Amino acid sequence: MRLLHTMLRVGDLQRSIDFYTRVLGMKLLRTTERPAQKYSLAFVGYGSNPEQAEIELTYNHGVDRYEMGTAYGHIALGVADVHATCEAIRAAGGTITREPGPVQGGSTVIAFVADPDGYKIELIERKNELPV
Fold it and tell me: First and final CA of the chain: distance in angstroms?
């Protein structure tokens, strides 16, 4: 078994595609339109390698916002340089919700970003990762 994707319900599909591709550097991998079922999907990720997990952005027609539940935590992305990544995200219009710094009680450098729907994305510094 392997992890295939994480699904997020979004209030504006194009806005979310723009954030994940333009701000976080992912690629739009594929889309699906289901007008009879009243939803649209977009899959984004860092490549089409079947071993990499993806994010499924689901837009339910006519629903422009969701309540953030207490069970959702965050998505985590490995980045080569958290400080530089945050600056690039900020320059592209993204929102940093926790500035770069070591995790409490440890030395791993992290930061948090929020997507347009409020979903939290953790950036974890890993020197061997490719830049976003």
Answer: 27
Mapped onto helix, strand or coil, the DSSP state of residue 49 is coil
Tokens found for residue 111: 């930061």
Task: Provide the whole-model pTM.
Answer: 0.86
Give the Cα separation of 36 and 46 in Å (integer). Answer: 30
Count how many residues are written for the chain. 132
Give the model confidence (pLDDT) of 21-71 as tens digits. 999 999 999 999 999 999 999 999 998 777 789 999 999 999 999 988 888
Residue 9 in tokens? 């319900």
105: left (phi over 0), alpha (psi -120 to 50) or beta: left
Distance CA 31, CA 51 (A): 19
Asked if residues 62 and 13 have their Cβ atoms less than 8 Å apart, the reply is: no
Q: Which of 51, 54, 87, 122 is catalytic?
A: 122
Q: Could you tell me if 89 and 24 are in contact, meaning their C-beta atoms sit under 8 angstroms apart?
A: yes
Identify whether 54 is a catalytic site residue.
no
Which residue in 9, 2, 1 sits closest to 118, CA to CA? 9
